[in-house]
Amino acid sequence: MEKTLGPVFLAKANLKRKPARTAALTVLVGLLSFTVFASLLIIESLKKGISGIQSRLGADLIIVPEEYENEAMNVLLSGEPNYFYLDKDIENQLVEIEGIQQITSQYYLTSLSESCCDFPVQIIGFDEKSDFVIKPWAGKKYTPNEQGEIILAGYSVPLEKKTFKLFGKSHTVCAKLSKSGSGLDSAIFVDSKTLQKIYKDACSRGFAFISDGNTDTKASTILCRLSDSVKSDTTSLLIRQKINGIKVIQKKRFLSHFEKSLSSLVIFLYALSLIFLIATILILSVVFSLILNERLKEFAILRTLGGNHKFLSKIVLLEAFFIGLTGGFIGVLFSSIFFFPFSTLISQKISLPFILPEASLILIFAVLTILIAVFSSVIASLRTIYHISEFEPYGEVK
User: How far apart are CA 174 and CA 162, in angstroms?
Assistant: First the structure.
């Protein structure tokens, strides 16, 4: 069966005839799509991460010991196990401050012993009666386990049949929390009663602690929710004036730190993608123009065989299209291979809240990236197509 020498057939044949050149151009477009796709994923993941921690933080103000602000930030950001304590009596002083609607406390338990758990973990005790942060995070009602314990696991905590080992003893998780994109995804949350039980059980097994585990008199952080009409700046100032030896972390300033970092990173990634886009178009344009001089004899033969300017232009346009399509797909594929398995590592290096976007949005980004790759290739071929429009069958361009 004879093959019709149409534009599609001739475009594919020419690309196959020069495999090295085709591969080089495809790799160039692949680098563009790799950069664009990765940038889109990182930017969206960071936006979702900041949105996630904003909704999960729950409190407008976080009160910590004065010299432990950075440690508290590290617990929230990276889940790095830490400990610091202040007097829980501070809650009674906070009640007297106008504008504070709700108050609850959390207690960080950290062991001095090695190999205490199946994995490095920050244990956070919370007051179930006053809590307004952790329970809503669970997203559903939960009941104590068979041992009467209330244990909630962060999204990233590895579990085996809803259980994990803590200080040599297995514990059943009552519920797993939804993802926040912060270090709290790696933490274990328990109510005060369960925390004291775990503490005593661990001490009996020879594990040593910094604290005495008394959640009645000590707390690591005290969280405050303010009335809608109250400004956090004003309340923060009132708290500092009334209580000594503390640091007040404001939710809006905490988040603004992320937003500023995100803005800088977004500008960098968009600029990098734009540079790659411009460079790709320019390099492809030059290469296509140089190739034209090598193909004058080929085009002359096609013209004498009846191929008009439109026919020749279609061949070049299709070659650019196939290079863009293949390069775009390869770039997206390799970007996915490098990005998704190492997304946790990327989030740790960036030190910002990080949540991967939904599968549907990832697919949209992939299609958009491939379209950008095809667009850049087609645009780069327009200069060559313009010269072909003036091509005559004598092997020269006007």
Answer: 8
